[in-house]
Amino acid sequence: xxxxxxxxxxxxxxxxxxxxxxxxxxxxxxLKAAGYNLFLVxxxxxxxxxxxxxxxxxxxxxxxGAMMVADESYAGSRSFEKFxxxxxxxxxxxxxxxxxQGRAAERLICEALxxxxxxxxxxxxxxxxxxxxxxxxxxxxDLVIEEGRNPRSNHPFKGNIDLERLRTFCREHRxxxxxxxxxxxxxxxxxxxxxxxNIRAASAIYREYGIPFIIDACRFAENSYxxxxxxxxQATRSVRxxxxxxxxxxxxxxxxxxxxxxxxxxxxxxxxxxxxxETLRSLLILTEGFPTYGGLAARDLEALAVGLEEVLDExxxxxxxxxxxxxxxxxxxxxxxxxxxxxxxxxxxxxxxxLPHIAPADLPGQSLACELYLSEGIRSCxxxxxxxxxxxxxxSLQPAQMELVRxxxxxxxxxxxxxxxIVEGLADLVKGKSKLRGYRITYDxxxxxxxxxxxxxxx
Length: 459
Ligand code: F0G
Known about the structure:
- It is a single chain.
- By secondary structure, the chain is α/β, with parallel strands linked by helices.
- It is 41% helix and 13% strand.
- The strands form 6 sheets. The protein has a 5-stranded mixed beta sheet with strand order 2-8-7-6-5, with helices on both faces. A 3-stranded antiparallel beta sheet has the order 9-14-11.
- Helix 5 links the parallel strand 3 (119-122) and strand 4.
- Helix 1 packs across helix 14 and helix 4 packs parallel to helix 5 (127-135).
- The model has no long low-confidence stretch (mean pLDDT 96).
- Bound molecules: ligand F0G.
- Ligand F0G is lined by residues 52, 54, 101-103, 126, 128-129, 183, 187, 216, 218, 256, 258, 267, 408.
């Protein structure tokens, strides 16, 4: 038995970047000039950038080293061969197409396989997946289990797909379903995992109805480690074995490698079906590039080939899942409510519960996100009425279902002392929370409000 209780960062640091540390007084005019929209704050003015875990990974010495030996030939590069072998070994799928990121893979699949009126079931589709499905006139259908929609539920696999509803859906709409999906982990539901048992059962349903099954595999390694930790029958298997079984249950995957690929850019599609792959390759050449680079430099493929191996290191995954758990537990102890249990890549604060004195239409999530920046230099992302609130006919804001603030953690970037420092500051934020005010929107763009909207504090 290891006598240590602390889960340490399982790496030492060779390259460092200075961290900006501004005072509240310095941050106030910066936030005001950005229209109180954290997307419009320059990264140099942020201390802890928790906007996303996507493309923000710190790469390893081995990844940087591999980049130097990349073969940048237009066609048939050695780096593609290396990348292809790693993906084939990892997934078991025969055909591999690189893309510049996840949504490019989604666009290719949607353009090649979907027609208006078709339907694609999943646990929850991520925003870009949904947008790509809807863009070609098809319907993205979310079938996550009931517990997955309840922020209080402590279900260990809140990303599971509802098997009863999936079966009924497949029976009723078989002719309109060209493929079915599952997203691991379920980002939309808070980075919640899907159990191996659930993936097996969903796979059996898809197979029973002859529906090809494609996994959105962005965070496959985090999902596999959750399976190892939380699914008793899987505790003694390696993450690599679990991962192999997960992929073997589907017919292919699409992946944003900016997450568990441990790289800053990249993605891919891997499939068993050779007829689909021909169509996809033709579309790829049209917009992404030749099939052996797909919009990436060969050095990106090299870094990804190494990243996809490194991410299966269980010491890394133990540390990775400890990050959000560590912060969530300390926030909860201070009285900051978070979606339970914490997800793999992010913590979601329930701003509606934390700031009950601010009406949902007055954007409690935005208020908290601004305060997290002013007091701690944290950049988070409001996922509530600011992002999703629709306008009523009289112009007032119709509140969203939940008022969440997402803190998503870059991989291998921040250390435990960074989190301890944040927690010290949060204690003051909790004490002064009744003084926080609501916000109103002063500039409301026609779509995707959260990227460019401007706000101001009320009163
Ligand atoms: N699928 C999932 C589950 C995702 O989380 C993302 C991206 C994508 C697909 C699209 O991949 O960004 O490489 O085009 N999620 C990021 C996030 C943007 O912040 O959660 P991409």
